Amino acid sequence: MRLISIVVAASLGLAAAGPSLADGASSKAMKAKTPDAVFERDEPAQASMALTREGAVWRVAFRAGGVPNGAATAADCELQAVGPQDADGVIAARLAPFEGELNAITAADIGANPPVIQVRVGPEGVFVEDGGAAARFCGLGSDIDGFYRRMGDFD
Known about the structure:
Blueprint: H1 6-14, H2 27-32, E1 37-41, E2 47-54, E3 57-64, E4 77-83, E5 90-95, E6 98-99, E7 104-105, H3 107-110, E8 116-121, E9 125-129, H4 133-137, E10 146-153
Antiparallel strand pairs: 1-2, 1-10, 2-3, 3-4, 4-5, 5-8, 6-7, 8-9, 9-10
């Protein structure tokens, strides 16, 4: 499926209740799946975000460098979150367990109150509001907030 407009998909009633943390896809399944769209950010540090449909919800996967701070620059960060998209094009994704190349987070790490990452989808890209996920699960100085420009859609 070609991702033309996530807002259109949401208006078709694809925004359903979010899955429990136990419903998250395994990292092996995620590695085999091609993202529906990829986004990149340059400031305040390099970051990328992949958006992948998983039934009625979206998985957002982040890889971000630390905010430049000389020798104190944080190591690269990796986070994944899953959630539905509302009629306004906003994905409210709760941090989800995953095992990635840079980071692994379990349900026990996340606890009962997972941070919610807001991803506001627009025609040029997405605007991300972290909700405290990077500060809690990545190195001091990590950041995933901000505008990511659309780099491509995949079939």
